Amino acid sequence: MTTFQVLLSIVSGTIVGFVLGLLGGGGSILAVPLLLYVVGMKDPHVVIGTTASAVAINAYANLIPHARAGHVQWKAAIVFAVPGALSAYTGSIIGKLVPGKQLLFLFAILMIVMGVKMAMPKKKKSQSEDLKNQVKLPQLIIMAILVGLLSGFFGIGGGFLIVPGLIFAARMPMIAAIGSSLVSVGTFGLTTAVSYSISGLVNWWVMLAFVGGGVGGGMVGAWLAARLSKQQRTLHYIFSGVVMLVAIYMLIINAEALDL
After folding, report:
1. What is the CA radius of gyration of the chain?
2. pLDDT, tens digit, 9 for 90 and up, residues 195-209
3. Which of 98, 57, 53, 59 is nearest to 198 (CA)?
4. Which of 105, 137, 195, 232 could form a disulfide with 174 if both were Cys (CB 3.0 to 4.6 A apart)?
């Protein structure tokens, strides 16, 4: 790694940390193309292992300001994280055996569908109805297992799926889902990182540079998320817009890989 590549790793980490702090997800989806096309790493599997490690640490670091601000619903967050981590490890084992680009093409389509859904207006419910249906435990666990499997398989933190999963199954407001999702983003990333590090597929120097940049970017992102908490519709639009932009980029890149 050259000095310039280390600097690029820090800048890339800052971007990833900012996105994690602001949106509670998207970090590793952005980190993978950043390391491949900006930093210049060559092996996609090493990129996945390295980003999983960095995103896990950044997610836990960004969790602190959200927790202090009261944006984390711990019970639902832990219930989601534990079964999801077990399935993430299983997914990571499978992911190391399968070329990822073809499957990321399909995953990008899923991201677009999810982004459109997140941008759609939600029907308002009465406060009593919200309290009555606050947490749907079976749906929460099933969602965690599915998201964990996908997160481990694709080598991502899974925040893009965790946030809407928490909103759907735990009836969280957007800002609480963002804060709570970081528990699972960190746990899923750590589980995937352990699997990849056992196989020697983690570049620790790039990971440290990424984390260094991510801490600062995460603080700014968390601050902005708190400022926008009173404008939840704005956060929904930002979230869905970033999802779809990244998804379009992934579709283009992976369509070329598939010779479509």
Report:
1. 17
2. 889 989 889 988 999
3. 53
4. 232
